[in-house]
Amino acid sequence: MSEGPTDEKTGIDFTEVDYFINEYSGQNAYEGLLLLKDDSNKDDVGLNYRLANACYILANCSKEWEQRKAYLLEGYGYIKTAYANEPTNTEVLHWAPIITGSLSENCTATKERIQFGHEFKKYIDQAISLLPPEFALLHMRGRFRYEVASLSFVERNLAMLFFGTPPSASYKEALEDLLAAENMDPGAIDNMLYIGKTYHALGDAKNARKWLTKVTKKESCDCVDTEQIEEAHTLLGKLPSPTPEELADDSDCDTAEGIGGEESD
């Protein structure tokens, strides 16, 4: 996503940087942005949300958890600066929930994970209320609803410290968002993985197997994709063996039509 290659306020030309971002070349985008940054434009919204974007790409391409979290924390600082200056900017609204949601998922401490989850909830609600429907927003809310529905009793009580009341969401609500996202942009590894995980949580082994199998047939483009494909393989190994009826069903559709798992061929 981009608002244009040249910032009208500062005159910064982002043409080359946007090319690198669109090519998923995080390191080149990151280095190019740092070369453009100085004391006169360090608070520029376009510069900061692009830096957050570049850090997100670098995090996804990092094998080591510590490095991945470090990039996300750096990106978090950039998107916080952008949000403080222009909280209704379309790109800021897009990247604020992505960065905070990714941080929440990459934190090992429960308290830290819930803190970022609370901030994510604020950003995603604002983005969905102000922006047109899009894949990323529905997918992120679906993932969040899945995680909330999966909270343990202890985690739910701890969340009360930040939310005031325990966050509430169901697997059915998560599935609604994830299937809606799938209809908008079919085939994303992370979305199909969470559809499979949600069906699994709902006790629907047949549809869980269908969506997790789709994930295992995809090719990764970064380290996060690789981990998610591996997770799909692991989850498939935990599912009960398919019934003879399932084995006879050779449908392999790529779109989702409804929560009941009825997909068009």
UniProtKB/TrEMBL annotation:
Pfam families: RMD1-3. One of its GO terms (molecular function) is microtubule binding. Residues 234-265 are annotated as: Disordered. Residues 246-265 have a biased composition (Acidic residues). GO terms for cellular component: mitochondrion; mitotic spindle pole; spindle microtubule. It comes from the Eukaryota. PANTHER family: REGULATOR OF MICROTUBULE DYNAMICS PROTEIN (PTHR16056), TETRATRICOPEPTIDE REPEAT PROTEIN (PTHR16056:SF36). This is TPR_REGION domain-containing protein. It comes from Panagrellus redivivus (Microworm).
